[in-house]
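Ticket #266: bound-state structure for 2-phosphoglycolic acid.
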Amino acid sequence: MHGKKLIVGNWKMNLGVHEASLYVHALSELVPIHQDVEVVLAPTLLTVQSLSLQVNRRQFKLAAQNFYWRDEGAYTGEVSATQLHGIVEYALAGHSERRHVFQESDKDIRNKVQAAIRNHIRPILCIGETAGERTDGETQGVLHDQLVSGLANITSEELGEVTIAYEPVWALSNGHDFDKHPTPTPRDASDIIAFIRAQLAHLFGKESAQKVRVLYGGSVNIHNAAGFLGAKGVDGLLIGGASLDKQAFSQIVEAAHAGSKQVKVK
Ligand code: PGA
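RESOLUTION: The complex was predicted; output attached.
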């Protein structure tokens, strides 16, 4: 587990080039640099390059929301991790919208994790159960399978580059209802993250598992963020809807800063 909290804002398919630039400018005035909080923004691929020239990387790091796993070639419409190298430090892989809306397979996701590592970009592997899987009592099985598959062929050493985001699919907002959408309790998220870490320890050894940051994501907002951040084992947050509200996002970063000074609650 890590001392530094990781707060990732996933903007999804929102904000054009001009809007994104204005938004980052506004955020840069609201979000102070804290040594104990790492803030990462995941804009669309269209805007990531221009924002990489705009941001102070001590204040904001950038993540790709998506990329193709081959390094180069005849793949019309795709962008590779090789091309993103030097522009982003992180990249999402296995986000539920990629899995469910774009039918990405476990193999695609595993290839992306490997491509990111090969290109010195830190993958954020998203895992989570759907509402139906939860109701059927399959949560642990689903998470286990997504971890084993997503991290196949990764060495214990490479595991240190990986972040896991636990995002229960049933808790994801549609970008607008994150203030009233159902979520797990911080205690539930903490228990599931303990399960995830135990699986990592089983696969890679306890020491390597401790180096992996595990985030919670799903309808995080200014009211529930501190609770999740204070839950045992939660190393940070992956935030969708609320990351597009500059006041909310900056308050969540402040909550991470304030919370990192407090004793963790169970
Ligand atoms: P949400 O999205 O915070 O709007 O639920 C999180 C995500 O999809 O990563």
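RESOLUTION NOTES: The first strand starts at residue 5 and ends at 10.
TICKET STATUS: resolved
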